[in-house]
Each structure stands twice: as C-alpha cells, then as structure tokens.
Amino acid sequence: MAEGVAAPFDRPDAGFNSLPGWTWVGCYGGYYLQCELLDGFEHGFFTRQWQGRPPGVLAGYVSAGVSVHRARQVHGALVLPASEAAAEPWPEADGLASETGAQSLWVCGADCTPVLLADVGSGRVAACHAGWRGVAGRIVPAALELLLQAGSSLEDLRVALGPAIAGQRYQVLREVSQQVALSLDPGLSDPEEALDLLRGGGGLLQDPEPGRDRMDIRAATSAQLQRLGLAPDQIAVCPLCTADEPELFHSWRRDQVKAVQWSGIVSQA
Predict the structure, then answer these.
(1) How confident is the model at residue 112 (pLDDT cuts 50, 70, 90)?
(2) 220-233 burial by CB neighbour count: b if 16+ within 10 A, else e?
(3) Integer Cα distance of 35 and 19 in angstroms
(4) Higher confidence at residue 258 or residue 17?
(5) Assign residue 215 a region: left if phi > 0, alpha if psi is -120 to 50, beta otherwise?
(6) Is 144 helix (H, G, I), strand (E, B) or coil?
(7) Which of 82, 160, 210, 214 has the most CB atoms lying inside 10 A of its own CB?
(8) CATH number of 3-165+233-266
(9) Most distant CA pair in the chain: distance in Å?
C-alpha cells in the first residue's frame, strides 16, 4: 500500500509543490494525486510517469482485492453500471457507477477532466471522463443521477475534478461554448443567457479571435453540479493544468500526441 508523503521535487514551479486540498502519495512505483475531499476512499489521479501501466496494474497501487472496471471512451455522455464494463471487449462509454463494494472504476484523459464521485454515506462511487462533449451531454449529472437512483443522498456526495486543461489554455469555437453553456441547466433555451451564466461562473473567458472563446470545462461541470443542488464545499477542483505541466501530464492541445493518464476510485459498498 502507498503512504502519503511530500513529493521530493525541488523545482519551485513544478506541479509537485503544495496543493491545498490535494496530496501527493508516494509508493515504490511513483507518485499519484489524491483529493482530501475523498478521504476514506481509495483513489488516485495518476500522471504521465505511469505511462504503459493499465488500470489492471494501477489498481494494485490504490487498493488490493478489487475488481477492475473500465470502458472504451468515445467522448460521449453514457454512464454504465460497473458490471457492464468488467472485461474485454470494453463497452463504449465515458462513465461508470458502482453497484457493490470493492469495484475499482477507471477513466483516462489528456486535457479532459477525470471526475471521481463518492457517496460518504453508502460507499458508492462513480468515475467519468468529461471533455467538452461529455460536459455538453451532462455526463457528470448522469453519473450523479445513477447514484441517487441507487439510494444515495445529495448531501452525502463528494466530487473531485482532477487535473485538466485550464480555461486560459483551451480555445474553442463559439458553437462549442454555446453547447456547453446550454447544458448548465436543461431549462435553458436562450444561448446568450446561457453564455452569460457560464461566464459568470468562470467557465467562459475572452479570446482575441472572433467567434472563439477560452472555456474552462471544470468550471462548467462545477456549475452543472451546483445547479443540481450540490454545495461548493462538496466539489473540489484540482488547480493543475495539464497543458502547463509537461513533466506531469500528457496534453493533446500541447503535444498533439495520443497519450493519456488514468484516474480511479474504489467503492466501499
């Protein structure tokens, strides 16, 4: 099992420096990141340093004696029960929700947000890969809904949004911004009103090019969850930007190379 330690890196500008609310965990295989909001749940946001090690291997660094579940991600908004993603061929989906204890759920990404959800009351968990298409399709609210249908209470849910590309580094077309903005609430129909809401929540930044914006997909996801009733202190957002940390993370926008880092969480019941 891993032990929580301070990561021994000396660069003052490195992502390994102190992150309030987040902890670097060291073990004989390397370092991975944990969110203090998910204390009590075995979980980890892994870095590019673990390249080549799939979830079946990484799961052993987080926990022992668990079943490993993953899907073939397609940048969609489908969330499956974990039992439907237990063996190859992996089903197409971008989110998983636990059904029993000791299920280790895994998602991957490079710039898209790895989202881990936990119910501190029941021990249920979910994991999502949330790029802009997934956010526009409301994948994280869909995962939350599966947990609620299984008996979770809204006030018991905790959500950690892991390392992803920051809004300042993520240029998108205005059409993309509108789709994401309208997803903040199913009742929204006016694109301009929706854009104002996204802008007010920090999810939309100005871009000098006409017809383009800088968009923060983690801020958009947080806004979706808060409009569903989660309090801000039930949501943790990692401050690390994948595009700004080449030593730590793969980034499609930065490198134009297909490579990912994995994140996972283990259910308790």
Answers:
(1) very high
(2) bbbbbbebbebeee
(3) 10
(4) 258
(5) beta
(6) helix
(7) 160
(8) 3.60.140.10
(9) 53
Classified as helix, coil or strand, 125 is strand
- Mean pLDDT, the chain, as a whole number? 93
Interstrand relation of 204-205 and 212-215 (parallel, antiparallel or unpaired): antiparallel
**Closest to 194 measured CA to CA, from 170, 220, 216:** 220
Structure tokens at 5: 């330690």
Q: How far apart are CA 221 and CA 147, in angstroms?
A: 17
Please name the residue that has the structure tokens 């991975």: 32
Amino acid at the residue 76: G
Decide: pTM greater than 0.85: yes
- Quote the Cα angle for 225-228-229, to 5°: 95
Percent of the chain with pLDDT strictly greater than 90: 90
Predicted local distance difference test score (pLDDT) of residue 17: 63
Question: What is the Cα–Cα distance from 5 to 185, expressed in whole angstroms?
Answer: 40
Distance CA 252, CA 250 (A): 7
Which of helix, strand or coil describes residue 268?
Answer: coil
Task: DSSP for 19-72, please give it.
Answer: BTTEEEEEETTEEEEEEGGGTTS-EEEE-GGGTT--HHHHHHHH-SS-EEE--B
Return phi, psi of residue 37, to 5°: -65, -25
Name the one residue in this structure whose structure tokens are 């580094």: 169
Whether residue 253 contacts residue 243, with contact meaning beta carbons closer than 8 Å, is answered with yes
